Amino acid sequence: MYVAVGASETLGFGATNPIRDRWPAVFERLTLPRDTRFVDVGIPGVTVGAALTLEVPAAVDENPTVATVWLNVNDILEGVSPRTYGGQLTELLTKLRRGGQTKVLVANTPPLDQLPKFRDCLPNRPTLIGCDTTRRGPTAARLEANVAAYNRAIAAAASKSGSTMVDLFSVATRAERNGTYAALIASDGFHPSDAGHRAVARAFAAAYRKTAAG
């Protein structure tokens, strides 16, 4: 039993065929047995705090053996402090773990400074941390610092809850270095493209296999 917890990315936004090509579906095909039952409880725009109420109860009711979590960008957009975010994420992961009955994989935050939507400061989000409204665009140093703080919080939450962290930050950084980053972003300038969904799925699959081998 596999449950995906997340936001619009988890539901396949940016993919040509969201049902088939969303990263949790690709992860399932790459990694889990053919008789696996898959439930996606993702909600567009959800934060970790909202997911605790709106997604986690439904996820736990499924008695999952595997759960994935990718929830961080919406919290950044809403200006949630890294400390508050980390506490809520730890609670969310602990509940999903069900005392160790569920293998939980949680993604960290990829670098956001190259996303077109962030370079435009997401026009309807003038309070975005790192956004310089006088120059129309996020200041790189502030945005990078916020992502780094979130990723420290995610690593700590994964450790405290006994979950496995999936390093999407490194996946995106490598893509930036080798010139393939743009191909991972959908035409909306924000969500993963088909290639992006596959890259996320492969990162989750590699982390899952590593824990299984261990």
Question: What does this 3D model show about the protein?
Answer:
The strands form 2 sheets. Strands 2-1-3-4-7 form a 5-stranded parallel β-sheet, with helices on both faces. A two-stranded antiparallel ribbon has the order 5-6. 49% of the residues lie in helices and 12% in strands. It has a single domain, classed as Rossmann fold (3-Layer(aba) Sandwich), CATH 3.40.50.1110. It has 10 helices and 7 strands. The model has no long low-confidence stretch (mean pLDDT 91). With 214 residues, the chain is α/β, with parallel strands linked by helices.
Main CATH class:
Alpha Beta
The CATH architecture classification is 3-Layer(aba) Sandwich
Class by helix and strand content?
alpha/beta
What is the makeup of the main sheet? 5 strands, parallel
Element-by-element helix/strand order: EHHEHHEHHEHEEHEHH
What is Rg?
16 Å
Query: Total domains, how many?
Result: 1
Bin the strand percentage. 5-15%
Structural shape? globular
In DSSP terms (H or I, runs of 4 or more residues), the helix count works out at 10
Distance separating the two termini: 21 Å
Query: Strands across the major sheet, in which order?
Result: 2-1-3-4-7
Low-confidence blocks of residues: none
- Percent range for helical residues? 40-55%
Instruction: Output the CATH topology.
Output: Rossmann fold
Q: Give the rounded overall mean pLDDT.
A: 91
CATH superfamily: SGNH hydrolase
Number of E strands: 7
